[in-house]
Amino acid sequence: MEAAPPAGPGAPPSQPQPQAQGPADPVAALLPRLRAKLFTWNILKTIALGQILSLCICGTAITSQYLAEKYKVNTPMLQSFINYCLLFLVYTVMLAFQSGPDSLFHILKRKWWKYILLGLADVEANYLIVRAYQYTTLTSVQLLDCFGIPVLMALSWFILYARYRVIHFVAVAVCLLGVGTMVGADILSGREDNSGSDVLVGDVLVLVGASLYAISNVCEEYIVKKLSRREFLGMLGFFGTIISGIQLLLVEYTDIASIHWDWKIALLFVAFALCMFCLYSFMPLVIKVTSATSVNLGILTADLYSLFFGLFLFGYQFSGLYILSFTVIMVGFILYCSTPTRTAEPAESSVPPAPSIGIDNLGLKLEENLPEAHSAFL
């Protein structure tokens, strides 16, 4: 009678419990780990910042196409010139009032030719992208603009010494799959595109402009992380105003003179300039805590926002595949941000020394390994 109780409650109940709970334990433990890995504060913040940039891009795209289609106003250089003037009045003036090695005079004396090339790449990228709206559709422009992502990754590999992992390539593939889903939605919805050779011209302009944007974004990431955001925007405003002003007089003088100005056209120009100015001012802040590649992945959702506005302005037809495309893009974006890249700078380099924790997704790396990363960063 004394041997029965320990045998009854002891042995039989203890043996089936590991068998029943064993398979469930890994699943129960995996979900919190995934939630802690993929839904951290820095990733959620990066997503929110990326969507703000997407709305700015959406605003520039909608106003450009609205000017071209509704009012027959084709002045992309004038639109960009206004933006560079705003950058000049704000950030270049800030540099002018600074003293020491970070002043406008010292920067021009040491690096004037570098910023001329940067300004030329940025001005022409803006001109070609905005000009492309006159030859092809809004959707085609924003889909082909994805060509800049692989170009950007290649430039980051060789210039910024970014070293990607397998998950980053998988994430980019997932994002591009979401873009492909959007293309399929366009075909199924029967959206009309421009016909003739102009479509080919517009597509080529987008591809060249996307490549120039990639060059500009790599330079922006380097300057923002190694130097300062104010220097980048100030010098871009200085040389961008000069280059775009000269090109404006050469290629768009007749088009500007033929505009029949009214308050609606003026309001569209103001809206474009404000959206572009906010985009230029805000993007360096996002790139500083992430990277140019992750920012470009996040702003792919601008296509969906443009579609929603196009439903009312241009008579687009909605498809459920657009929601699926948005979801796929966001999944790829989260995957990319979930794992930081490595930085493999050579031992002897003229580049100023960077933190050993890497320049891509710096905020995420600090969150994952705060004690070691903080000491290494200091």
From TrEMBL:
Topological type in the membrane: Multi-pass membrane protein
GO molecular function: transmembrane transporter activity
Localization per Swiss-Prot or TrEMBL: Membrane
Keyword annotations from UniProtKB, A to Z: Membrane, Transmembrane, Transmembrane helix, Transport
Family annotation (Pfam families): SLC35F (PF06027)
Family classification: Belongs to the SLC35F solute transporter family.
UniProt protein name: Solute carrier family 35 member F2
